[in-house]
């Protein structure tokens, strides 16, 4: 496996969620994820509760491959970053254990310093150091 520095990868990963240029965002996605990579999101508690009420014992939202991941990242950008209210930043806690990188990130108001949201990211890398599975746990 390539020599990937965990904090540098966390920085690149978070930066693409803030990228305003759609072309550069797509390029960053292709550099960070493998072509068959998957992004799995643990949905908010209210969605999990509705799913449980319908008989689902687990819920995960997923985007698979570059096109679906691009839509997912673009929607997040449009909702949180584009209006000029928030930006995302990695915390300085990224660690790597073989092919797994774990780190936390924050959502911060523009012009502020205190996080109003955030989450835990667990990335599984392929032999080239690109993401094959991305497990996102927001709200932490």
TrEMBL record:
It comes from the Bacteria. InterPro entries: NTF2-like_dom_sf (IPR032710). SUPFAM superfamilies: NTF2-like (SSF54427). This is SnoaL-like domain-containing protein.
């Amino acid at each position: 496996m390539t020599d990937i520095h965990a904090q540098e990868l966390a920085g690149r990963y978070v930066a693409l969620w803030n990228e305003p240029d759609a072309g550069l965002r797509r390029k960053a996605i292709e550099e960070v994820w493998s072509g068959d990579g998957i992004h799995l999101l643990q949905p908010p508690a209210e969605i999990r509760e509705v799913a449980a009420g319908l008989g689902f014992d687990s819920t995960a939202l997923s985007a698979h491959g570059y096109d679906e991941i691009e839509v997912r990242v673009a929607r997040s950008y449009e909702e949180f970053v584009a209006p000029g209210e928030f930006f995302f930043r990695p915390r300085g806690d990224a660690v790597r254990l073989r092919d797994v990188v774990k780190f936390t990130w924050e959502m911060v108001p523009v012009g502020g310093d205190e996080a109003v949201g955030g989450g835990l990211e667990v990335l599984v890398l392929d032999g080239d150091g690109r993401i094959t599975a991305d497990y996102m746990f927001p709200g932490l």
